[in-house]
UniProtKB/TrEMBL annotation:
Residues 33-188 form the Metallo-beta-lactamase domain. It holds the Pfam family Lactamase_B. InterPro entries: Metallo-B-lactamas, RibonucZ/Hydroxyglut_hydro, Sec-metab_biosynth-thioest, WH-like_DNA-bd_sf. CDD domains: metallo-hydrolase-like_MBL-fold. One of its GO terms (molecular function) is hydrolase activity. This is Hydrolase (Beta-lactamase-like). It comes from Actinoplanes couchii. The keyword Hydrolase applies.
């Protein structure tokens, strides 16, 4: 980990316009479970769901019990965020599901970067997946960025090829580092007060890991498994597959950088 994580930045008091419903799917990749967010439009009863989470009937019914839901938005196409979307739409009389990827839309158009939906701005932040977006909400009584899995409330996130792309991910983190004084409302883990600092913390962590992977490759490690053995000698076996995915992304990134340097 690139330096200590400031736990003091965790917040449990949210602005009145946002509600968190935690899905019952905890695990090594999902932390406490998927965070489903309900965002109320300013001065109205209209509401938007961000990430319905898994296909869990009681969770989806709990979401659908909230008034005024007019749309369902998806941060990215991983099943722990999107799996329940079609069923939730059904429970809500067919409200549209909108995601960056047409494959995850139900009765709605793909999200366009820069588009605003009831004051929820779509920001393209690829890297964790190629279809990852964040949502920015700026209000007088507190502003927030919904980061999906691009940044988590605790720990770091997986960037796994072929869909994940470390170069794109580093650029997305740089973009998010330009949002100071904003709440970060992630796809997993606690809400935090430090969006921009967290983006810089993630950037520092990635650069430190890249340096370690470059050193492992220089020492002869050629495969993700060999890199993981050198870089994470005491790894929890449950996290090994995630570490190998990350190592594959780092090897890809370093090889691409290398090839670019060699070009005239
Ligand atoms: Zn994900």
């Amino acid at each position: 980990m690139g330096g200590a994580e400031p736990e003091s930045a965790e917040v449990d008091r949210l602005p009145g316009w946002v509600t968190l419903l935690l899905a019952p799917n905890p695990g090594p990749m999902t932390l406490d479970g998927t965070n489903t967010w309900i965002v109320r439009a300013p001065g109205s009863d209209r509401a938007t769901v961000i990430d319905p989470g898994p296909l869990d009937e009681s969770h989806l019914r709990r979401i659908a019990g909230h008034d005024g839901i007019e749309r369902i938005l998806i941060t990215h196409g991983h099943h722990d965020h999107v799996e329940g979307a079609a069923r939730l739409s059904e429970l809500l009389d067919g409200v549209p599901v909108r995601a960056a990827s047409p494959a995850h839309c139900v009765g709605g158009e793909p999200l366009r970067p820069g588009e605003s939906l009831d004051g929820i701005l779509v920001l393209r932040t690829p890297g964790h997946t190629s279809d990852s977006v964040s949502f920015v909400v700026e209000r007088e009584d507190g502003s927030a960025v919904f980061t999906g899995d691009t940044m988590l409330g605790r720990g770091t996130t997986v960037v796994a090829p072929p869909d994940g792309d470390l170069g794109a991910y580093l650029r997305s983190l740089e973009l998010l580092s330009a949002y100071p004084q904003m709440l970060m409302l992630p796809g997993h883990g606690p809400a935090r007060s430090d969006t921009a600092e967290r983006a810089r913390f993630y950037l520092g962590h990635r650069r430190q890991r890249l340096a370690q992977v470059a050193a492992a490759m220089a020492a002869g490690a050629e495969t993700p498994a060999a890199v993981v053995d050198l870089v994470y000698p005491d790894l929890d076996p449950a996290l090994r597959f995630a570490a190998e995915w990350s190592a594959a992304a780092q090897i890809d990134y370093l090889q691409q950088e290398n090839n670019q340097e060699k070009k005239p």
